[in-house]
Specification:
The complex is a heterodimer of chains A (114) and B (254). The radius of gyration of chain A is 19 Å and the shape is elongated. Chain A starts with a helix and ends in a 13-residue tail after the last helix. Chain A has a single domain, classed as Helix Hairpins (Orthogonal Bundle), CATH 1.10.287. Helices cover 63% and strands 0% of the residues of chain A. Chain A is built from 3 helices and no strands. Chain B has one domain (53-95, 102-249). In chain B, 68% of the residues lie in helices and 0% in strands. Chain B starts with a helix and ends in a 5-residue tail after the last helix. The chains are: A mainly alpha (114), B mainly alpha (254). Chains A and B meet through helix 1 and helix 3 of A and helix 1, helix 2, helix 3, helix 4 and helix 9 of B.
């Protein structure tokens, strides 16, 4: 059981990549990228988890209480923010692609088509 | 490349990647046994050294504040990129689109959405400000609070429509707010240098642990980030809504 969270992280990465590779719609593709990225959240939080420990926030518990690793949580926060803005950027590209080509199917759109 | 070949190539690559991941994960500590030491060190020293309660915030906005500055500019750059991509093109006026859903009609806005949207406006605004200001005390901070604040105009749109949303979100002003938020972070960093210490080093008085004004520059940076994030997301929202409106005007999804 102790490997299950790592398995979840690997599964999210691979299943998201599968979605990207076989995507027929750019909106779907962007969502798949978000799935890939969520695997990094799971992995980061897994790495820093300590059984029975609390959050690294000491407003209700005194400092010194066993806590999980705060560094990976800070990295996850960074990750989520970057993910949200990259999603917005990619969706903007999807809007433009649809305007230019009338299609959202990445297989019908050649790379770097003007 | 046909679909079957594409999937076959992917499966080979995915199998190899899966093996690599399994190999990599096997070198990590089993789940629930975080070995340390860096996180533990920070948990030990941060509450006393910075007078804060939320160690994650202390890391993001103090110990690795310079990285977060870079991250904030990633956000700034991608908002700018999205706005450039979604700008009004002259050549696309009155150009018919080839794909659309002419048979789909938008349902009228329901009274429940209208009423709840308005009722929640103030609550969400207060909650967003609370999140921005309380990053040093409890889970929260500029990024989270900024996104919550950006949903206030979204609720305006949901309950009042674009006609209410547009005049209440003057783009010129919001662009200035976004830039000011991004710039204020750098100014706080320079404050450290003016005081004779390193860039982004905590120069303000740290205050008392548990009080709202504690953690020195951490809260100031959070306010700057909150301003930048909320303004950035409102700009994105406004740009996407403009696209939607143009599609409707040209007979799409109308």
């Amino acid at each position: 059981m102790s490997w299950l969270p790592y398995l979840v992280a690997a599964w999210l990465l691979l299943v998201g990549l599968y979605g990207i590779a076989t995507s027929r719609n750019m909106i779907h593709l962007v969502v798949c990228l978000s799935v890939v990225q969520s695997s990094t959240y799971v992995l980061l939080l897994c790495v820093g988890y300590r059984a029975g420990a609390g959050a690294p926030v000491f407003s209700d518990v005194p400092p010194g209480t066993p806590s999980v690793d705060p560094i990976v949580q800070a990295l996850t926060l960074t990750d989520i923010v970057v993910g949200a803005t990259v999603t917005a950027l990619l969706l903007a590209i999807a809007v433009q692609v649809h305007k230019r080509t009338g299609s959202l199917d990445p297989r019908r759109t050649r790379p770097m088509q003007g | 490349m046909n679909d079957r070949l594409r999937t076959a190539v992917f499966l080979v690559g995915a199998a190899a990647l899966g093996l690599l991941l399994a190999w990599g994960f096997s070198g990590l500590a089993p789940f629930g046994n975080y070995p340390g030491p860096y996180g533990d060190v920070l948990v030990q020293i941060a509450p006393n050294e910075r007078q804060i309660q939320n160690v994650v915030t202390a890391i993001n906005f103090d110990y690795r504040g310079f990285d977060t500055l870079g991250e904030e500019f990633i956000l700034f750059a991608s908002v700018a990129g999205a706005l450039v991509l979604l700008r009004e093109g002259i050549e696309e006026e009155d150009r018919p689109h080839t794909e659309g859903l002419p048979d789909r009609h938008l349902p009228p806005r329901s009274e429940a959405v209208r009423a709840w949207g308005l009722a929640l406006l103030v609550t969400i605004f207060v909650f967003g400000v609370y999140m921005v200001l309380h990053g040093q005390l409890s889970p929260g901070g500029g990024f989270q609070g900024g996104v919550i604040l950006a949903t206030v105009p979204l609720h305006l749109f949901l309950s009042g429509g674009y006609r209410v949303f547009r005049p209440l979100t003057p783009e010129a002003l919001i662009e200035v707010a976004e830039a000011a938020g991004a710039g204020a972070y750098v100014v706080v960093g320079l404050g450290g240098m003016l005081a004779g210490i390193a860039f982004l080093q905590n120069v303000l008085p740290l205050g008392e642990t548990g009080s709202l004004v504690s953690g020195g520059t951490i809260m100031v940076i959070n306010v700057a980030v909150g301003l930048e994030v909320s303004a950035g997301f409102v700009l994105l929202l406004s740009a996407f809504l403009r696209q939607l409106l143009r599609l409707r005007r040209s007979g799409h999804a109308a």
